[in-house]
Amino acid sequence: MKNLIEKGLDIQTLSMMIEKFGKENNLKETLKALEYATKMHDGQLRDEGTPYIIHPLQITCHMIANGISEDEMLSSALLHDVCEDCDVEVDELPFSDEIREAVSYLTHKEDKHLEKGESKKLYFRRLHENRIAALVKVYDRCNNISSMSKGFDDEHIEKYMKETLECVYPLMDEVEELWPEYSFMIYEIRYHMDSVLHAILRRK
Fold first, then answer.
1. What are the beta bridge partners of residue 45?
2. Which of 103, 114, 168, 187 is 20 to 30 Å from 195 at the Cα level?
3. How many CA atoms lie within 13 Å of 21's alpha carbon, on the beta-carbon side?
4. Which residues, including other chains, have CB under 8 Å from residue 15's CB and lie 6 or more apart?
5. Is 151 left (phi over 0), alpha (psi -120 to 50) or beta?
6. How far apart are the two ends of the chain, measured CA to CA in Å?
7. Measured between alpha carbons, how far is 178 from 96 in angstroms, rounded to an integer?
8. Phi/psi-derived region of residue 45, left when phi > 0, alpha when psi is between -120 and 50, beta in every other case
């Protein structure tokens, strides 16, 4: 059963899907970001023990499946954790200013002058200032919600659910209001996350 569920979610399959789409649509930055992110995340593992690169690959494939073909958007999805997790500064990224700006918004850094919870809330409140960052974060959280049962303990799941309801759901509302062209995408993501969260709540 597990093999059937995870079929087609390996690094090679996901990478080939993105590479094929990138070449067909002449997405030069996306193809470059695919190579860069794969190199930077090499050897890193997620909490559930899977190679870290699978996470940005899945997000990017999800976006493509939902009709997104914007080069900067897909590149930012692939790169969204590079600065936070790979000791790379935003201005060191060999990509366009638009991509660097989006990744900057997506990179959470603790503010020593604020409590940890407040620093994270401020991070989420600023995301609507950048269209690409806001949408990538929504897809990012959708992917994390989908996989958290494999790597989070009950306490972590509880905190993550609370953060999602308090910070990510309002962000989805802002995306719909500011960029109504993404309304159907937000509907699909909200429907998916609602289903996962309700399933976890019923289990308690």
1. 51
2. 103
3. 23
4. 34, 38, 57
5. alpha
6. 24
7. 24
8. beta
Q: Indicate the helix (H) or strand (E) that contains 90.
A: none
Two tokens, residue 84: 């936070």
Pair of tokens at residue 155: 């306490």
Distances in Å between the alpha carbon of 74 and those of 22, 30, 167?
9, 6, 23
pLDDT score at 72? 98
Other beta carbons less than 10 A from residue 135's beta carbon: 26
Residue among 42, 106, 101 at smallest CA distance from 80: 106
The residue ranges of every structural domain in the chain are: 9-203
CA–CA separation, 26 and 55 (whole Å): 23
Phi-psi region of 26 (alpha: psi -120 to 50; beta: other; left: phi over 0): left
For the chain, the 3-state helix, strand and coil shares in percent, each to the nearest 5, are: 75, 0, 25
Are the CB atoms for 136 and 186 separated by under 8 Å?
Answer: no
Q: Which amino acid is at 133?
A: A
Amino acid sitting at position 69: S
The pTM assigned to this predicted structure is 0.93
CA distance 65 to 189: 12
The CA distance from 20 to 1, in Å, is 29
Q: Which residues of 8-22 are buried (b: 16+ CB within 10 A; e: fewer)?
A: eeeeeebbebbeebb
- The CATH architecture that domain 9-203 belongs to is Orthogonal Bundle (1.10)
Residue range 106-124, pLDDT digits in tens: 999 877 777 767 888 899 9
